[in-house]
Amino acid sequence: MKRKIAAITIMSAVMLAMTGCAGGAVSNEYIKITKYKGVEVDAVEGIPEITDESVDNNIQKVLEGFSDTKDVTDRPAQEGDIAVLDYTAEADGQEIENGSMTGYELELGSNTFFEEFETAVIGHETGDTFELEHEFAEEYTNKDYAGKDVTFTITLTGLKVKELPELTDEFVQTISQKSETVEEYREEVKELLESNNEAYIVSELQDNAWSVVMENTEVLEYPEDRLKEEKEDIYNHYQAGADMYQMEFADFLGQMDMTEEKFEEYADTAAKSNLKEDLVAELIAEREGIEMTDEEYAKAKEELADEMSYGSVEEMEEEVDEHNIKSYILRDQVKEWVAQNCIQVEDD
Question: What is the pTM of this model?
Fold first, then answer.
Protein backbone atom coordinates (compact mmCIF):
# COMPACT_ATOMS: atom_id res chain seq x y z
CA MET A 1 0.00 0.00 0.00
CA LYS A 2 1.26 3.44 -0.88
CA ARG A 3 2.07 5.69 2.04
CA LYS A 4 2.55 9.41 2.13
CA ILE A 5 4.55 11.33 4.67
CA ALA A 6 2.90 14.27 6.44
CA ALA A 7 5.07 16.24 8.85
CA ILE A 8 3.49 17.99 11.80
CA THR A 9 4.29 21.38 10.30
CA ILE A 10 5.51 22.50 6.89
CA MET A 11 8.66 23.89 8.47
CA SER A 12 9.37 20.60 10.23
CA ALA A 13 8.89 18.76 6.96
CA VAL A 14 11.32 21.05 5.14
CA MET A 15 13.96 20.78 7.86
CA LEU A 16 13.65 17.03 8.07
CA ALA A 17 13.89 16.70 4.30
CA MET A 18 17.02 18.85 4.27
CA THR A 19 18.68 16.67 6.89
CA GLY A 20 17.46 13.47 5.25
CA CYS A 21 15.79 12.47 8.59
CA ALA A 22 19.02 10.68 9.40
CA GLY A 23 19.80 12.54 12.63
CA GLY A 24 19.02 11.20 16.05
CA ALA A 25 21.54 8.46 16.79
CA VAL A 26 23.15 9.06 20.18
CA SER A 27 24.57 7.05 23.06
CA ASN A 28 26.33 7.22 26.40
CA GLU A 29 27.60 4.64 28.88
CA TYR A 30 24.06 3.59 29.82
CA ILE A 31 21.94 3.63 26.66
CA LYS A 32 22.12 3.69 22.88
CA ILE A 33 19.37 5.35 20.83
CA THR A 34 19.47 4.50 17.13
CA LYS A 35 16.99 7.26 16.21
CA TYR A 36 14.93 9.84 18.07
CA LYS A 37 14.61 12.70 15.58
CA GLY A 38 12.27 12.29 12.64
CA VAL A 39 10.81 8.98 13.80
CA GLU A 40 7.80 7.84 11.78
CA VAL A 41 4.45 7.26 13.49
CA ASP A 42 0.95 6.58 12.27
CA ALA A 43 -0.99 9.78 11.71
CA VAL A 44 -3.28 10.64 14.61
CA GLU A 45 -6.80 11.58 13.67
CA GLY A 46 -9.21 13.12 16.11
CA ILE A 47 -12.85 13.94 15.43
CA PRO A 48 -12.92 15.39 11.88
CA GLU A 49 -15.61 17.91 12.77
CA ILE A 50 -17.43 18.94 15.94
CA THR A 51 -21.05 18.73 14.78
CA ASP A 52 -24.26 20.07 16.29
CA GLU A 53 -25.02 16.50 17.30
CA SER A 54 -21.76 16.31 19.25
CA VAL A 55 -22.65 19.52 21.05
CA ASP A 56 -26.17 18.25 21.79
CA ASN A 57 -24.84 14.98 23.20
CA ASN A 58 -22.42 16.80 25.46
CA ILE A 59 -25.11 19.17 26.73
CA GLN A 60 -27.40 16.19 27.33
CA LYS A 61 -24.75 14.67 29.62
CA VAL A 62 -24.49 17.96 31.49
CA LEU A 63 -28.26 18.08 31.98
CA GLU A 64 -28.24 14.48 33.22
CA GLY A 65 -25.67 15.51 35.80
CA PHE A 66 -28.24 17.95 37.22
CA SER A 67 -31.16 15.56 36.89
CA ASP A 68 -33.54 14.61 39.67
CA THR A 69 -35.70 11.51 39.94
CA LYS A 70 -39.35 10.86 40.69
CA ASP A 71 -41.08 7.62 41.58
CA VAL A 72 -43.11 5.77 38.97
CA THR A 73 -46.13 3.84 40.27
CA ASP A 74 -48.60 3.73 37.40
CA ARG A 75 -46.87 1.56 34.80
CA PRO A 76 -44.39 -1.32 34.26
CA ALA A 77 -40.66 -0.80 33.92
CA GLN A 78 -39.39 0.37 30.55
CA GLU A 79 -36.01 1.18 29.03
CA GLY A 80 -34.51 4.33 30.50
CA ASP A 81 -36.12 3.81 33.91
CA ILE A 82 -34.10 3.40 37.08
CA ALA A 83 -35.13 0.08 38.60
CA VAL A 84 -34.60 -0.48 42.33
CA LEU A 85 -33.80 -4.18 42.79
CA ASP A 86 -33.20 -6.82 45.39
CA TYR A 87 -31.60 -9.90 43.89
CA THR A 88 -29.71 -13.07 44.73
CA ALA A 89 -27.72 -15.37 42.46
CA GLU A 90 -27.36 -19.13 42.97
CA ALA A 91 -25.24 -21.77 41.25
CA ASP A 92 -25.13 -25.47 42.07
CA GLY A 93 -27.85 -24.85 44.64
CA GLN A 94 -25.76 -22.40 46.65
CA GLU A 95 -25.78 -18.63 46.80
CA ILE A 96 -22.86 -17.11 44.92
CA GLU A 97 -20.37 -15.20 47.04
CA ASN A 98 -21.02 -11.46 46.68
CA GLY A 99 -23.94 -12.37 44.39
CA SER A 100 -26.68 -10.58 46.31
CA MET A 101 -27.72 -6.95 46.42
CA THR A 102 -30.45 -5.00 48.19
CA GLY A 103 -31.79 -1.69 46.94
CA TYR A 104 -29.55 -1.74 43.87
CA GLU A 105 -30.42 1.01 41.37
CA LEU A 106 -30.01 -0.04 37.74
CA GLU A 107 -30.72 2.19 34.75
CA LEU A 108 -32.39 -0.09 32.25
CA GLY A 109 -30.65 0.01 28.89
CA SER A 110 -27.37 1.29 30.33
CA ASN A 111 -25.62 -2.07 29.76
CA THR A 112 -24.37 -1.98 33.34
CA PHE A 113 -25.42 -5.63 33.64
CA PHE A 114 -25.52 -8.24 30.94
CA GLU A 115 -28.31 -7.60 28.43
CA GLU A 116 -30.55 -10.51 29.52
CA PHE A 117 -30.69 -9.19 33.07
CA GLU A 118 -31.77 -5.69 32.13
CA THR A 119 -34.22 -6.98 29.53
CA ALA A 120 -35.79 -9.33 32.09
CA VAL A 121 -36.73 -6.40 34.33
CA ILE A 122 -38.54 -4.51 31.56
CA GLY A 123 -42.29 -5.11 31.66
CA HIS A 124 -42.44 -5.91 35.36
CA GLU A 125 -44.20 -3.76 37.94
CA THR A 126 -43.09 -2.71 41.40
CA GLY A 127 -43.49 -5.64 43.79
CA ASP A 128 -42.94 -8.35 41.18
CA THR A 129 -40.53 -11.19 41.98
CA PHE A 130 -39.22 -13.30 39.12
CA GLU A 131 -36.34 -15.58 38.15
CA LEU A 132 -33.78 -15.43 35.38
CA GLU A 133 -31.72 -18.39 34.19
CA HIS A 134 -28.30 -17.46 32.84
CA GLU A 135 -25.07 -19.22 31.89
CA PHE A 136 -21.84 -17.47 32.83
CA ALA A 137 -19.31 -17.23 30.02
CA GLU A 138 -16.27 -19.49 30.08
CA GLU A 139 -14.09 -16.40 30.49
CA TYR A 140 -16.10 -15.15 33.50
CA THR A 141 -13.77 -13.41 35.96
CA ASN A 142 -14.64 -15.69 38.87
CA LYS A 143 -13.25 -19.03 37.68
CA ASP A 144 -15.35 -20.93 40.25
CA TYR A 145 -18.48 -20.04 38.29
CA ALA A 146 -17.15 -19.73 34.75
CA GLY A 147 -19.36 -21.66 32.33
CA LYS A 148 -21.91 -22.54 35.02
CA ASP A 149 -25.69 -22.05 35.03
CA VAL A 150 -26.87 -19.45 37.50
CA THR A 151 -30.34 -18.55 38.73
CA PHE A 152 -31.11 -14.94 39.61
CA THR A 153 -34.09 -14.27 41.87
CA ILE A 154 -35.07 -10.64 41.32
CA THR A 155 -37.57 -8.40 43.11
CA LEU A 156 -38.46 -5.03 41.64
CA THR A 157 -38.93 -2.90 44.77
CA GLY A 158 -39.18 0.48 43.13
CA LEU A 159 -39.15 2.36 39.87
CA LYS A 160 -37.86 5.84 39.14
CA VAL A 161 -37.50 8.08 36.13
CA LYS A 162 -35.02 10.87 35.53
CA GLU A 163 -36.21 14.46 35.30
CA LEU A 164 -33.79 16.72 33.49
CA PRO A 165 -33.72 20.49 33.94
CA GLU A 166 -34.80 22.59 30.98
CA LEU A 167 -31.98 24.23 29.06
CA THR A 168 -32.75 27.93 29.48
CA ASP A 169 -30.74 31.12 29.72
CA GLU A 170 -31.36 31.10 33.46
CA PHE A 171 -30.04 27.54 33.83
CA VAL A 172 -26.97 28.34 31.70
CA GLN A 173 -26.11 31.21 34.04
CA THR A 174 -26.05 28.81 37.00
CA ILE A 175 -23.58 26.37 35.42
CA SER A 176 -21.34 28.56 33.27
CA GLN A 177 -18.98 31.35 34.23
CA LYS A 178 -18.67 32.40 30.62
CA SER A 179 -22.05 32.16 28.92
CA GLU A 180 -25.26 34.11 29.53
CA THR A 181 -27.55 32.53 26.95
CA VAL A 182 -28.23 29.09 25.51
CA GLU A 183 -26.65 30.03 22.20
CA GLU A 184 -23.53 31.32 23.92
CA TYR A 185 -23.36 28.12 25.93
CA ARG A 186 -23.64 25.98 22.82
CA GLU A 187 -20.69 27.87 21.34
CA GLU A 188 -18.78 27.46 24.61
CA VAL A 189 -19.36 23.71 24.53
CA LYS A 190 -18.29 23.51 20.90
CA GLU A 191 -15.04 25.36 21.67
CA LEU A 192 -14.42 23.03 24.61
CA LEU A 193 -14.92 19.94 22.45
CA GLU A 194 -12.56 21.35 19.82
CA SER A 195 -9.96 22.07 22.48
CA ASN A 196 -10.31 18.56 23.94
CA ASN A 197 -9.98 17.09 20.46
CA GLU A 198 -6.77 19.01 19.82
CA ALA A 199 -5.40 17.95 23.23
CA TYR A 200 -6.19 14.32 22.43
CA ILE A 201 -4.32 14.52 19.12
CA VAL A 202 -1.27 16.08 20.78
CA SER A 203 -1.29 13.53 23.61
CA GLU A 204 -1.64 10.54 21.28
CA LEU A 205 1.07 11.83 18.97
CA GLN A 206 3.47 12.35 21.88
CA ASP A 207 2.80 8.89 23.28
CA ASN A 208 3.16 7.22 19.88
CA ALA A 209 6.38 9.01 18.99
CA TRP A 210 7.85 8.36 22.42
CA SER A 211 6.98 4.69 22.12
CA VAL A 212 8.99 4.47 18.89
CA VAL A 213 11.95 6.18 20.52
CA MET A 214 11.82 3.72 23.40
CA GLU A 215 11.77 0.84 20.91
CA ASN A 216 14.84 2.39 19.28
CA THR A 217 16.69 2.43 22.61
CA GLU A 218 18.97 -0.29 23.93
CA VAL A 219 19.96 -0.24 27.59
CA LEU A 220 23.66 -1.00 27.93
CA GLU A 221 23.75 -0.80 31.70
CA TYR A 222 21.49 0.53 34.45
CA PRO A 223 23.17 2.88 36.94
CA GLU A 224 22.94 0.77 40.11
CA ASP A 225 22.30 3.62 42.54
CA ARG A 226 19.43 5.03 40.51
CA LEU A 227 17.89 1.61 39.90
CA LYS A 228 17.97 0.99 43.63
CA GLU A 229 16.23 4.32 44.24
CA GLU A 230 13.53 3.48 41.70
CA LYS A 231 12.83 0.16 43.42
CA GLU A 232 12.72 1.85 46.81
CA ASP A 233 10.19 4.40 45.51
CA ILE A 234 7.94 1.59 44.27
CA TYR A 235 8.27 -0.31 47.55
CA ASN A 236 7.54 2.82 49.60
CA HIS A 237 4.43 3.51 47.51
CA TYR A 238 3.02 0.06 48.23
CA GLN A 239 4.13 0.17 51.86
CA ALA A 240 2.22 3.42 52.28
CA GLY A 241 -0.87 1.65 50.94
CA ALA A 242 -0.42 -1.16 53.44
CA ASP A 243 0.03 1.34 56.27
CA MET A 244 -3.10 3.23 55.25
CA TYR A 245 -5.17 0.05 55.57
CA GLN A 246 -3.22 -1.02 58.68
CA MET A 247 -2.15 -4.25 57.02
CA GLU A 248 1.03 -6.25 56.93
CA PHE A 249 2.87 -5.77 53.65
CA ALA A 250 2.47 -9.41 52.58
CA ASP A 251 -1.26 -9.33 53.37
CA PHE A 252 -1.68 -6.11 51.41
CA LEU A 253 -0.01 -7.69 48.39
CA GLY A 254 -2.24 -10.73 48.82
CA GLN A 255 -5.30 -8.56 48.32
CA MET A 256 -3.97 -7.97 44.81
CA ASP A 257 -3.21 -11.65 44.22
CA MET A 258 0.50 -10.89 44.44
CA THR A 259 3.15 -12.70 46.46
CA GLU A 260 6.26 -10.95 47.73
CA GLU A 261 8.27 -12.84 45.11
CA LYS A 262 5.97 -11.62 42.32
CA PHE A 263 6.15 -8.12 43.76
CA GLU A 264 9.94 -8.20 43.54
CA GLU A 265 9.68 -9.17 39.88
CA TYR A 266 7.13 -6.43 39.25
CA ALA A 267 9.19 -3.81 41.08
CA ASP A 268 12.32 -4.74 39.13
CA THR A 269 10.50 -4.51 35.77
CA ALA A 270 8.74 -1.25 36.64
CA ALA A 271 11.90 0.34 38.03
CA LYS A 272 13.88 -0.52 34.91
CA SER A 273 11.11 0.81 32.67
CA ASN A 274 10.90 4.11 34.56
CA LEU A 275 14.65 4.52 34.67
CA LYS A 276 15.01 3.75 30.97
CA GLU A 277 12.58 6.55 30.15
CA ASP A 278 14.46 8.97 32.40
CA LEU A 279 17.80 8.06 30.85
CA VAL A 280 16.40 8.56 27.35
CA ALA A 281 14.86 11.92 28.26
CA GLU A 282 18.07 13.13 29.88
CA LEU A 283 20.26 12.12 26.93
CA ILE A 284 18.00 13.72 24.32
CA ALA A 285 17.67 16.88 26.43
CA GLU A 286 21.44 17.10 26.72
CA ARG A 287 21.96 16.49 22.99
CA GLU A 288 19.30 19.01 21.89
CA GLY A 289 19.80 21.63 24.60
CA ILE A 290 16.28 21.23 25.99
CA GLU A 291 16.00 23.24 29.20
CA MET A 292 13.65 25.57 31.07
CA THR A 293 13.90 28.96 32.71
CA ASP A 294 13.04 29.25 36.41
CA GLU A 295 9.70 30.80 35.47
CA GLU A 296 8.88 27.99 33.05
CA TYR A 297 9.84 25.38 35.63
CA ALA A 298 7.64 27.00 38.27
CA LYS A 299 4.70 27.00 35.85
CA ALA A 300 5.38 23.37 34.91
CA LYS A 301 5.32 22.41 38.59
CA GLU A 302 1.94 24.07 38.99
CA GLU A 303 0.59 22.13 36.00
CA LEU A 304 2.05 18.88 37.30
CA ALA A 305 0.54 19.41 40.77
CA ASP A 306 -2.85 19.99 39.16
CA GLU A 307 -2.45 16.94 36.91
CA MET A 308 -1.59 14.78 39.93
CA SER A 309 -4.60 16.16 41.86
CA TYR A 310 -2.57 17.96 44.54
CA GLY A 311 -4.08 21.06 46.07
CA SER A 312 -0.88 23.04 45.58
CA VAL A 313 2.75 22.75 44.55
CA GLU A 314 3.71 22.79 48.22
CA GLU A 315 1.46 19.80 48.90
CA MET A 316 3.05 17.91 46.00
CA GLU A 317 6.55 18.73 47.22
CA GLU A 318 5.72 17.25 50.63
CA GLU A 319 5.08 13.85 49.05
CA VAL A 320 7.27 13.85 45.93
CA ASP A 321 10.96 14.68 46.09
CA GLU A 322 12.39 17.37 43.85
CA HIS A 323 14.41 14.92 41.76
CA ASN A 324 11.30 13.01 40.73
CA ILE A 325 9.42 16.23 40.02
CA LYS A 326 12.21 17.37 37.71
CA SER A 327 12.25 13.96 36.02
CA TYR A 328 8.50 14.07 35.35
CA ILE A 329 8.73 17.55 33.88
CA LEU A 330 11.84 16.85 31.79
CA ARG A 331 10.23 13.71 30.36
CA ASP A 332 7.17 15.69 29.30
CA GLN A 333 9.39 18.33 27.71
CA VAL A 334 11.35 15.79 25.73
CA LYS A 335 8.22 13.88 24.67
CA GLU A 336 6.83 17.16 23.34
CA TRP A 337 10.06 17.84 21.43
CA VAL A 338 10.14 14.33 19.96
CA ALA A 339 6.53 14.70 18.78
CA GLN A 340 7.24 18.09 17.24
CA ASN A 341 10.10 16.54 15.28
CA CYS A 342 8.42 13.29 14.26
CA ILE A 343 6.84 12.41 10.93
CA GLN A 344 3.22 11.32 10.70
CA VAL A 345 2.58 8.66 8.10
CA GLU A 346 -0.84 8.30 6.52
CA ASP A 347 -2.21 5.49 4.37
CA ASP A 348 -3.54 6.52 0.96
Answer: 0.71
